[in-house]
Write a structure and sequence with these properties.
The protein is an alpha+beta fold. It is built from three helices and nine strands. Strands 1, 3, 5, 6, 8 and 9 form a six-stranded mixed sheet that branches. Strands 2-4-7 form a three-stranded antiparallel sheet, with no helix packed on it. The model is unreliable at 146-150 (pLDDT under 50).
Length: 150
């Protein structure tokens, strides 16, 4: 069996399990095409997630001001907007800006955390989808080289 086929079967099994357990709906499992993660510019990535978001003070990015290791930058987002269903994390200057997508089940707190790779100092965007509308927040994170400044 080829590696590609194994990956597809593994990913399909994981999604099927999540749907069968009720963690995500089938609509959420199919919500974002894989091509969205291949977007080469911030504008393309924003179009893939639904368009240009409005800035909101109800969306907060949790990211260090200075990251000493760009390979593992802890980034998160919190949404205080009711009925938040999706959160996307985008890294403006990365070769593929869309870095993470989270589907938020109804009745759960919209607070996500992950680690992202950043090649250079850049803006991090959190885009939140709530009631069919998009909202965002932006925060600059500086990446130092070897902890020496950047």
């Amino acid at each position: 069996m080829s590696r590609q086929r194994r990956r597809v079967l593994r990913a399909g099994g994981a999604v099927a399990t999540l749907v069968s357990l009720g963690v995500i709906t089938s609509e959420q499992a199919l919500a974002l095409p894989r091509e969205a993660f291949a977007s080469k510019s911030l504008a393309e990535a924003l179009n893939a997630v639904g368009g240009q978001p409005a800035t909101s003070d109800q969306v907060q990015i949790v990211s260090p001001d200075i990251a000493e290791n760009g390979a593992v930058v802890p980034v998160g987002a919190v949404s205080k907007i009711p009925n938040t269903t999706e959160i996307y994390l985008l890294v403006e200057k990365n070769p593929t800006p869309l870095a993470a997508a989270f589907m938020i089940p109804a009745g759960t707190e919209a607070d996500v955390q992950t680690r992202l790779k950043m090649g250079q100092s850049t803006n991090v965007l959190a885009v939140v989808k709530a009631d069919g509308k998009l909202y965002s927040a932006v925060k600059e994170t500086k990446v130092t080289l070897g902890g020496c400044g950047g």
